[in-house]
Each structure stands twice: as structure tokens, then as C-alpha cells.
TrEMBL record:
One of its GO terms (cellular component) is protein-DNA complex. This is LysR family transcriptional regulator. It comes from Cryobacterium fucosi. Belongs to the LysR transcriptional regulatory family. Residues 74-100 have a biased composition (Low complexity). The keyword Nucleotide-binding does not apply. Keywords: DNA-binding, Transcription, Transcription regulation. Coiled coil: none annotated. It holds the Pfam family HTH_1. Residues 1-58 form the HTH lysR-type domain. One of its GO terms (molecular function) is DNA-binding transcription factor activity.
Amino acid sequence: MDTTLLRRFVTTAEATNWGAAAKTLNMTRATLLISIRKLEEEVGGELFVTVDDVPTLTSAGLELLEVARPVVRKPAASAAPKAQAKAGGKAKASKGQGRAPAVKGAPKPKGRRQSR
């Protein structure tokens, strides 16, 4: 089972409504509902009953919550250490439209220079 789906499920089970759960997860409500539907397909039954935009766990949802909480709350130390991204170099300014890069060994283009 996908741990991302389980994390979304646990957050929704602990939230007061669908909107609050979606905001906590930094996603849209529709995306959250799609994730929950996908998890329900994997489990093979309904996990929530919604009344007035408040998700209430079903008996299958309660059983899954007991299993999912330890998996989601597992400390990150057991995961592989992530490499830190190195800082980027100095950003270079754009030279504008139509300026071709200099080619080594090629003659310089003769053109009119813009006045100031």
C-alpha cells in the first residue's frame, strides 16, 4: 500500500472536514478525494461516510486507521539519508533577443551598433 495514500487518509481522519484536511496536506479538496477513493478501491470498501462535509470513519476505516497510524508516524531516521542539494552558481543575465553566442574561431559578425 502506498504510504502517501495512508498519510492522506490519517490526516483526513484526524481533520474536522475535507477542506481542513486538504489545506493541511497542501492540496486541493478534489485531489484529496481522488486519493481517498483510490485507497478505498485498494481496501475494497468505504472508509468514510460524509455528512455535512464532515468525514466520519466507517468500521473498515477505523481498522485501517489503527494499522496506518504507526506506519505514517514512523520516525524518518529509518529512511535512507537524503543528500543535500548544493547551492547553485551565479545567475547570468539575459543578453536579449537575437544575440548569437560567440563561436570560437569564427569571425565576429559585422552589424550596426545601437546608439544610446
